[in-house]
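Hi all, posting the design record for the shared folder.

TITLE: backbone redesign
STEP: 1 of 1
STRUCTURE INPUT:
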C-alpha cells in the first residue's frame, strides 16, 4: 500500500473574475438592437467630429446656378451634389453633415445640464428634512404637469429664440425626471447597512451623500441620460421647426425642415433627408438606451 500523503495533490486553478467593463459588454451585446444602435450612434458621432473634412462644400455656400437640384443630378457626366440642393442652392449633404455636429453638441450640453442639476437636487431631496423634500418634489411636479414641448416653447419665448436658450429650456424640462429618479434611488440605498456603517463610523453627511450613496445610484441615471439625449435632439429639432430654436442659416436639422416646408411637394429631398437623420439618430439612441438598461440593471435583464 502506498501512503496517501505521498500521492500528488491536484492543483486547483482559479479564474480571475471578469472585469466590470467586460461583464457589461457581455450583457450589452446580447441585445442586437442595442449593438446596432451603438454603432449607428458612433457613426454619427464620427461624422459630427470630422464634419469639416467630410463635407464637400461649406454649409452656407450658395450656388445660384443649382437651385433645388435633385439628388444624383448629373452635370458634365459627374454628380456635383450627391443629395441635391435646397432653395438657396446650398449643398444638402454638407448641411446634414454639419447638422450632426449641432445635434450632438445640443444633446451633450442639455444632458449635462439636466443630469448635473437633477442629480444634485435628487440627492438633496433624498437626505433633506421632510419640508424641504416636499418643496423640491412639488416644484418638480409642477414642471411635469405641463406638456414638455409647450413648456419649452414658453421658456424660449421668454428668453428669446436662439439655440442657447432652446438648450436651457429643454434642460429645465428634462431635469425633473433626473430629480425623481435620483431621489427614489437614494431613498432605497440610504436604508442599507453600508450607509448605516458609514454613518456610525463618523462619516460626514456630504461624504455619505456624494461618496457613499450616489455611486450606487448611477446605473438608472446613466440609462436616463442616454434616453434624454434622444429627447433633447428631438425637442431641439421641434423647436427649430417652429422657429424658436436655432435660427437660419444654422444647419440644424429641425431648422432645415422649417426652411423647406413650402417645397415639400416639388422638392421631396429637402424634407426627407433631414427628417431621416432625426429619425435614425433618435431610434439609434433609444435602442442603445434600452441595451444600457438591460446591462446595468440585473432586475431588468431579458430572460
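Okay, here is what came back for every position:
SEQUENCE:
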Amino acid at each position: 500500500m502506498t501512503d496517501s500523503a505521498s500521492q500528488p495533490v491536484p492543483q486547483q486553478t482559479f479564474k480571475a473574475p471578469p472585469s466590470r467593463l467586460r461583464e457589461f459588454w457581455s450583457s450589452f451585446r446580447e441585445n442586437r438592437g442595442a449593438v446596432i444602435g451603438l454603432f449607428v450612434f458612433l457613426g454619427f458621432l464620427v461624422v459630427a467630429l470630422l464634419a469639416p473634412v467630410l463635407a464637400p462644400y461649406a454649409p452656407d455656400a450658395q450656388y445660384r446656378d443649382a437651385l433645388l437640384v435633385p439628388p444624383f443630378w448629373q452635370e458634365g457626366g459627374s454628380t456635383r451634389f450627391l443629395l441635391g440642393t435646397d432653395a438657396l442652392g446650398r449643398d444638402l449633404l454638407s448641411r446634414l453633415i454639419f447638422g450632426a455636429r449641432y445635434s450632438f453638441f445640443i444633446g451633450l450640453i442639455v444632458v449635462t445640464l439636466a443630469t448635473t442639476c437633477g442629480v444634485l437636487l435628487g440627492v438633496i431631496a433624498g437626505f433633506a428634512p421632510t419640508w424641504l423634500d416636499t418643496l423640491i418634489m412639488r416644484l418638480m411636479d409642477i414642471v411635469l404637469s405641463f406638456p414638455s414641448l409647450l413648456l419649452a416653447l414658453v421658456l424660449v419665448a421668454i428668453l428669446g429664440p436662439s439655440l442657447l436658450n432652446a438648450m436651457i429650456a429643454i434642460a429645465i424640462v428634462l431635469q425633473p425626471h433626473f430629480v425623481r429618479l435620483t431621489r427614489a434611488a437614494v431613498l432605497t440605498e440610504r436604508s442599507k447597512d453600508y450607509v448605516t456603517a458609514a454613518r456610525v463610523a463618523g462619516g460626514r453627511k456630504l461624504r455619505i451623500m456624494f461618496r457613499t450613496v450616489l455611486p450606487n445610484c448611477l446605473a438608472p441615471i446613466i440609462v436616463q441620460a442616454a434616453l434624454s439625449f434622444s429627447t433633447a435632439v428631438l425637442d431641439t429639432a421641434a423647436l427649430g421647426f417652429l422657429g424658436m430654436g436655432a435660427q437660419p442659416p444654422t444647419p440644424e436639422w429641425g431648422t432645415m425642415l422649417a426652411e423647406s416646408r413650402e417645397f415639400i411637394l416639388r422638392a421631396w429631398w429637402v424634407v426627407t433627408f433631414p427628417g431621416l437623420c432625426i429619425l435614425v439618430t433618435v431610434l439609434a439612441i433609444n435602442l442603445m438606451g434600452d441595451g444600457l438598461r438591460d446591462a446595468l440593471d440585473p432586475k431588468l435583464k431579458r430572460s
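COMMENT: Strands lie at 74-75, 78-79.
Let me know if anyone wants the other runs.
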